[in-house]
Q: What sequence folds into this?
């Protein structure tokens, strides 16, 4: 298995770094575009690439603006951009999908994402789901739109005080800090990510992980969440687009899995084709937790009916 790096230039002058693991299988079955979470990067998904490549799937993992190798003067580490950051993230994802489909014409394309990446993936599917064969939302969450309106008030106040490119200890306490407190007997501030201490240490040792995002990035994210979780926007998903939900029931980010289950209920109500798997002991990064083999098996089984049949 060998990784290739690609760079995609967007209309506003940004360059998106894309980690691409092409399958070496005799027959290609499809494409998965995978979107990473906040304060991490696409290169961390090599184990996912290995599992999918063996089954004939190409994997593309772009680094979001202000993450990984997708940094610049306009988008320094942790910053989506001074303006329209959320829209830019979604449009970047759509551009990667278009590039992947053009590179592999005729193959089904599935979009997926972890945590923040799942929110971007949902937004992209709402805008252009007709170009997708499936949608995977991993370690995601759901609240009614009004929740994000209230959540955004202290974050906007912090932005006013610290500036768009400033970072905020208050926001960190409200998010990463609050989630860390829900893990029993933590030995590090990131034990909420996984039960596997080796995986947590790898995250801690990675200079491209665990950083603070800017106040503007948080404001853009919260506004994006308010938008995509409205009933009007959820109704924009194509009626027959299959959706796979994957989550851990010990994930503090989604209120110990309750947010994922709420999302499942909403999508069921809307009669979206839906499959859901939740792991009782899984924390936030279920692809890096003790349940990872089960997660990969569940994803592989769900992808198989969507694959191009040779």
A:
């Amino acid at each position: 298995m060998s990784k290739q790096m690609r760079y995609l230039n967007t209309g506003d002058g940004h360059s998106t770094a894309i980690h691409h693991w092409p399958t070496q299988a005799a027959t290609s079955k499809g494409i998965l575009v995978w979107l990473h979470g906040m304060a991490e990067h696409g290169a961390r998904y090599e184990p996912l690439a290995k599992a999918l490549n063996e089954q004939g799937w190409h994997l593309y993992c772009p680094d979001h603006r202000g993450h990984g190798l997708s940094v610049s003067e306009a988008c320094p580490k942790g910053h989506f951009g001074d303006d329209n950051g959320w829209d830019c993230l979604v449009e970047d994802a759509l551009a990667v999908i278009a590039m992947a489909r053009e590179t592999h014409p005729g193959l089904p394309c599935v979009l997926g994402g972890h945590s923040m990446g799942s929110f971007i993936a949902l937004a992209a599917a709402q805008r252009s789901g007709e170009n997708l064969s499936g949608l995977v939302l991993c370690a995601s969450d759901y609240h009614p739109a009004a929740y994000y309106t209230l959540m955004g008030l202290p974050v906007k106040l912090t932005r006013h005080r610290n500036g768009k490119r400033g970072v905020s200890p208050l926001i960190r306490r409200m998010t990463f800090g609050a989630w860390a407190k829900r893990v029993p007997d933590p030995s590090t501030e990131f034990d909420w990510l996984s039960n596997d201490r080796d995986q947590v240490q790898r995250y801690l040792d990675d200079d491209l992980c665990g950083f603070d995002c800017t106040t503007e990035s948080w404001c853009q994210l919260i506004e994006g969440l308010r938008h995509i979780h409205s009933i009007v926007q959820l109704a924009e998903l194509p009626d027959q687009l299959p959706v796979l939900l994957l989550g851990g029931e010990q994930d503090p980010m989604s209120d110990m899995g309750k947010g994922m289950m709420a999302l499942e209920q909403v999508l069921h109500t809307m009669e979206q084709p839906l499959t859901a798997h939740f792991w009782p002991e899984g924390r936030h990064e279920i692809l890096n937790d003790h349940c990872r083999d089960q997660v990969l098996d569940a994803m592989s089984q769900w992808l198989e009916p969507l694959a191009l049949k040779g």
